[in-house]
Write the structure tokens for this entry.
Amino acid sequence: MMETQNLHWWQRGVVYQIYPRSFKDTTGNGVGDLQGIIEQLSYLNDGTPRSLGVDAIWLSPFYPSPMADFGYDVSDYCNVDPLFGDLATFDRLVEEAHRRGIKVIIDWVPNHTSDQHPWFLESRSSRDNPKRDWYIWRDPRPDGSPPNNWGSFFGGPAWTFDEHTGQYYLHQFVKEQPELNWRNPEVRAAMLDVLRFWLDRGVDGFRMDVIGLLIKDAELRDNPPDPNAPPDLPPNDIFGRQLHIYNWDQDEVHEVIREIRRVLDEYDDRCGIGEVWGELPRWIKYYGENGDELHLPFNFRLLWLPWQARAMRRSVDELEAALPGFAWPNYVLGNHDQPRLASRFGGEAQARAAALMLLTLRGTPTLYYGDELGMENGVIPPEKVQDPQGINLGVERTRDVARTPMQWNAGPNAGFCPAGVEPWLPVSADYATRNVAVQSEQPRSILNLYRKLLWYRRHSPALYGGSYRSLDVEHEDCFVYLREAGDERRLIALHFGSTPCHISIPGEQSGMVAISTYLDREGREDLSRLELRPYEGLLIEVTK
Ligand code: GLC
């Protein structure tokens, strides 16, 4: 039997990601701010089933930044950009969140700073500056070209030449994001102190940006070409044409992550979440050999799958089989870097089924703001594209589509910012019907589905802490699994297909439907012949 009593908050809870620029603007400059988040905390959790009911918020960066990558280029790790507020507002946010039982996770961007960070200004000032070695500087090759062949995620080479000192510096994102040298002990000490600064202010955890990139190959060797690279990549997509052997996921990074973890462990019950990609066996290593690294390396494996029952089941089952006992699973279906899940999976009906899956798999779910409304990709006119990825690699790659303003109501600017103010990205056209106020009044809206699922999950040990087992059903469009804790048994049946189907649940006679993703169906069902409508998901109570 699974022990569900002693789970940590980051195991039991549901995390909600807020992209602060896009959540709620209270100053009238078209950009969201921390005060806006404070004002919406009751929407997130007021302790009743009327609120969304999340347990933790993760805030994307709010630090002082020239915004070359919208805050992922930090010029001061220990402050708040005036655009978003100030430290006093942040302290109030933590206090107000905690008062409602909401944990606060913040983004920590350790791999690179802004080129305007005082450390980099010093580092680039001369070759013998004491901070020169805080970043990764190398001589040009004899022909003047960059030190190796690495490309930037955002297009072009990963190196920029500095005329003044005659060397190149490394940046795997935009050139305004020079990479710190984590092999230098002073850098480590300074960055670990940043963690302590925020831990002392009461934050409950960190989402650690591109954590697997902290250590690069000691010799900075050339990456080999990727024989399977898509043929139609834009000419400047050097990154997309290579196998990333030497620029990330080096074995030595684990020692650094253990050091980071030791800082978290200086405090009570804090949580380290990391942005880590890679194949399962290498990805799993980020939990640490005995659980001494990340509490949760983000699991993005479902995010990139097609909308297919088999693919989803295989991914979940592989993860379940591979995880060591100490490693807690987690699932992500959307974030600020990916197209909206409703658009990826095909529409609202699929988004509803995806919500049921995300909130009932074993492990910690992370929700992305607006997905609870079924928000779709925004339409961004080419001249309004903001994201450097879209600007450099083509408008179809812009991440702006998932960063459009939160849709609060049917009023001007969807209630995101005051009338007459231009929001930093256009509000989506569907805002008049797809918003919090309207959906709150519709008993069967996707928002009310999320609320209901979150409330149900909170009170169900089987869902927040129980075991997981997938079941074989004949229909290839269905993914069915059982969650169990003690006597509590919950069956989840997800139908990925567009035509109605009947399935027979092995070993089960009948059960009570507690929630249908269409919110129009409850009560006893014969499980030897269970009907599922197109894209329908059911949460069913079964007894032994
Ligand atoms: C991560 C962030 C992304 C950012 C990049 C560079 O992937 O999620 O938004 O652009 O790191 O910091």
